[in-house]
Amino acid sequence: TKCPKGKIGYLDFEGYKIYKSTDPAFLDGYVITDGHGNKSLFKPVAQFDIRNDVEGFFPIEVAPGVLYYMGDNKGLRHSWTDYDVVNGQTYYYAVVSYDRGWAANNMLPSECTKVIVRDIYGNITLDKNTVMVTPSTPAAGYREPELENGVQPLPGTVGTGDIRIDIIDPSLVKEGHEYHIVFDDTTQPGSITYSLYDVTDPSNIKTIFEDSPYINNEDFNPLFDGMRLLVKNDMIAWNDSLTGWTKGNCNLAISVEFESSTKYPTPNSLKRQKGYPVSYEIRVGEPDTSWLYNTPRHTTNFQVWNLVDNEKVRYYLWEESGKQDSVLSAGDYIEIWLKVNNRWKKIWKIKFMAPIAEEIINPVAGDRAVIEIDKPFRSGDVFSFRTKAARVDRQTAKSSLDRIAVVPNPYVAAATWEPPRLFASGRGERKIDFIHLPQRATIRIYTMSGHLVRLIEHDAPMNDGSESWNLTSKDGLDVAAGVYIYHVEAPGVGEKIGKFAIIK
Are strands 494-503 and 411-412 parallel, antiparallel or unpaired? Predict the structure, then answer.
């Protein structure tokens, strides 16, 4: 929305609220009252707002004792999941945007509308910001879509940041599709973007989006094939959890710190270049030379390798006075050198410390340690992932037959999810649900004496394992109270027999 501010208009969208109800008029949520107990505002089930200087309550009352809540500055999100639902119950949701208002001119924040119309026949007409949902159990044996092996870096990839694929709409995830996330530098120093491609068919590579700048977990990338891509770049830092001895029995603890200076106070103040940032491997038993700036000092019993470029790096071994034997041991530390602007600079100090309350085991020939450094994404980094679509596993379905049930059981006068009456007279629709059904099944309902009451064919999408019965016989008559037998037959899966009761 555009709001006047002086003589200049500005966009004052602030956020949005999500309203939920079992009633199309959202009366369930009309619960916020004023100081006299009069209902004044709808209560949202979720709220998301822009990160800015607007938060908390608007300073002007909507009604006596009622203030409009502007949000908590946690940022916008573009998907939300409601876990507080009952299968079979119909819910109505509205996503409602609101603006900032204008306190100086006594203008309260305003919301967009949330209109759902139900006619006299029960037909529902939704507005563009509303939706009607009836949750249900998936079919027996249903398997969620997934990534085959997660997100994997291709050879030559350096960045260690987090790449997450969220599945938003399981029904849209494609089977066996492969995607590449490709990082590229921009014309602005130190910035990077990434693009997403569907490379399933190498002769017909499809661009999903290009040059996305969102590298801090922002939820702004477009949805694709039912999924969402989130990227969180790493800052340059020592990774304690991934650092340690990878070969041998050495038990020295390892600690790493950046060799800061006035010009380069932090690891991220040093310009990225060949040899920085990289992870390192210390290879004991392979001699090399310890250097102090440009001066070779002595031969040590180890080498230090740059694992990104697969080459040796220059280092200096510091040893305690009186213990200089050029052999890596407890109490020593290694300083890693890097050539910066044609001058050698110390960038990392790697300390080796004796364990507490244990006998010291110093490294010997053949031992190796990895010093892991978190590295930002860089141009040329490529990550790959492959999807598996939602599916029904027949073997799992067979083992799930015992989960088939009738709800509510017993049926006592009504079920909570039955739709309201549309007319002043008459009982209105009655309904029970069979749940956890296989994707295709035949349901037969019998009286205790074996008389067939109703035959129902269930053939639904794999994410819907429910089937409703309106408590009428095959002749269209309301069934009597009593105990009934049901028989579920699913070709290729199996059978289930159970019973339920109807109490009027």
Answer: parallel
Q: What is the pTM of this model?
A: 0.83
Region for 380 from its dihedrals, namely left if φ exceeds 0, alpha if ψ lies in -120 to 50, beta otherwise: left
Owner of token pair 């053949």: 366
Least confident of 47-51, 156-160, 189-193, 479-483: 189-193
The sign of the CA dihedral 74, 77, 83, 85 is positive
Query: Domains in the chain and their CATH numbers?
Result: 2-133 (no CATH), 145-236+381-388 (no CATH), 240-371 (no CATH), 392-503 (2.60.40.1930)
CB hemisphere CA count around 52 (13 angstroms): 12
What mean pLDDT comes out for the span 22-46? 90
Cβ–Cβ contacts within 10 Å for residue 483, how many? 12
Q: What's the CA dihedral at 371, 374, 377, 383 to 10 degrees?
A: 70
CA dihedral over 151, 152, 156, 161, signed as positive or negative:
positive
The DSSP secondary-structure symbol of 102 reads B
CA distance 391 to 463: 9
Between CA 486 and CA 496 the distance in angstroms is 8
Counted residue by residue, the chain has a size of: 504
Which strand (E) or helix (H) includes residue 397?
Answer: helix 394-399
Query: pLDDT category, 8, cuts 50, 70, 90?
Result: very low
Rg (CA), the chain: 33
